[in-house]
């Protein structure tokens, strides 16, 4: 079996002990819906992959998505 595949199992979404980013995201998704869910999902995705893919660019993307999540959560109340 192939360890990495750019479509279904890219290296930048797998941790050093084999844990997949998708497993982490699914485990912590809980009850968010809509735009908040998308913003949270992307924040986590960029944080989990930044060291293996786009470095500071991914951190900036994570920050932008986190700002959108904060806006959604603030508007909810």
From TrEMBL:
Q: Which domain of life is it from?
A: Bacteria
Q: Which InterPro entries match?
A: SaV-like (IPR021739)
Per its record, how is this protein called by name?
A: DUF3310 domain-containing protein
């Amino acid at each position: 079996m192939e360890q990495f595949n750019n479509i279904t199992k890219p290296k930048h979404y797998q941790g050093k002990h084999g844990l997949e980013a998708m497993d982490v995201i699914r485990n912590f998704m809980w009850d968010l819906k809509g735009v908040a869910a998308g913003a949270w999902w992307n924040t986590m995705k960029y944080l989990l992959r930044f060291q293996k893919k786009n470095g500071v660019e991914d951190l900036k993307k994570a920050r932008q998505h986190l700002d959108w999540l904060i806006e959604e959560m603030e508007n909810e109340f």
